[in-house]
Amino acid sequence: MIGLIMAGGKGTRMNFSDEKLLLQYKKPLILHVVDSLKNSNCFSKILAITSHNTPKTKKLLEENNIETFDTLGIGYAEDLYSVLKTINDDILVTSGDLPLLDEDIIQRIVDQYDSKKIWTSIIITNKFLTSLGFDSHYSVKFNDQICNYAGISLVNSKKISSFENLDEDYIILDDKRIAFNLNSKRDYDLLCTT
Known about the structure:
7 helices, alpha/beta, single chain
């Protein structure tokens, strides 16, 4: 399995002058994600998806011996698809802005991988997310509940020919380590108080 870290976004919702993934929470945010994937021992390779939006993040990743893949930086789905077209493997995709990720939750997610499924998104119930003080603009109804995307997916790239009409499965996992996704300055302030 390959671990893909999405690290090429503009981070515009943060309203921050520098690259979002370089914000400090004991160390740069992106390194929390890198370390959780490395320490899980689940991956044959870890690859960070960067773009012209994140040159300093790319430099930091390369200084930490993480291979990078440059995309056009158009958007999450477009950038991800450009990478998936080049990979023929089982993949865990994660956002680079999940500072509470650790190896245990990564192992737990990987253990639920089913190669018969093309795309499995990890989701969090809206009830759990709001109990932590977060909100999300990316929701889906599943099992009669409003849920929110965690920014983590399990993908069988061998079965993907396009993003059109892609079958998506879901796993609900109400866990603070994947719910804490930094999208705004308020989210960062909340993180710094934990």
